[in-house]
Design goal:
With about 210 residues, this protein is an all-alpha fold. It contains eleven helices and no strands. Keywords: DNA-directed RNA polymerase, Transcription.
């Protein structure tokens, strides 16, 4: 069953797109890399289920800002950048699981690729299944093959983007503002998918730092 939010999470289009600069970029970069490497190394060495669960649900309690402050201000093709994007995927899903599940199912029907199998969502994919997928992907960062987790996140983003684009096309003649909003979201999801795919490839080459 989906967990109740301890604190409402609201993520605007501007927040979704932006990775802000810091006052001291060198310090921001160093802290981001050190914390991401230390956390991932420690948990993957000893993946205590209680610790992993706290990490997976961290943003439910503390909000996305805490993760963003640590990892959102570095490059996409880095370890902290990749971790941030997977947490972002989970937040996007939990923000509106009914809508995201609809986009995901619509995208799955629209494009005939292996992304459905890679994402690994239960079929049919309703709100409960999409919430389970969000947690499963994030669990994979700490307890499974990290590259597979990143690829699953990328596949989810591609399918959801395709679904949002399809809905935008339907709305174009009767609800122009809605169509524009959905097209913008689809573009951001597509960019997110590309970043996660590249990060997965770098991890497999031992080059994701």
């Amino acid at each position: 069953m989906p967990r109740d939010h301890h604190r409402p999470v609201h993520f605007t289009d501007q927040e979704f797109a932006a990775i802000q600069g810091g006052d001291d970029p060198a310090l921001v970069n160093r802290v981001a890399h050190e914390t991401a490497n230390a956390l991932l190394h420690r948990v993957r060495q000893d993946p205590d289920p209680a610790v992993v669960e706290r990490l997976v649900t961290y943003t439910d309690v503390h909000g996305i800002d805490a993760i963003a402050e640590l990892w959102a201000r570095v490059g996409a093709h880095t370890l902290p950048g990749a971790l941030w994007r997977i947490y972002l995927v989970r937040v996007v899903i939990r923000q509106n699981p009914d809508e995201i599940a609809y986009f995901f199912e619509r995208g799955t029907a629209q494009i005939g690729t292996i992304d459905e199998a890679v994402a690994g969502a239960e079929q049919p994919t309703g709100p409960a299944e999409i919430l389970t997928l969000a947690d499963s992907i994030l669990h994979g960062l700490y307890t499974g093959d990290l590259a597979v987790a990143l690829d699953r996140g990328a596949a989810f983003c591609r399918l959801t983007a395709a679904g949002a684009t399809s809905v935008a096309d339907d709305a174009d003649l009767t609800a122009g503002e809605r169509a524009t909003e959905l097209t913008r979201r689809a573009l951001r999801l597509t960019e997110l998918a590309a970043d996660l795919t590249e990060a997965a490839a770098l991890w497999r080459r031992d080059s994701l730092d």
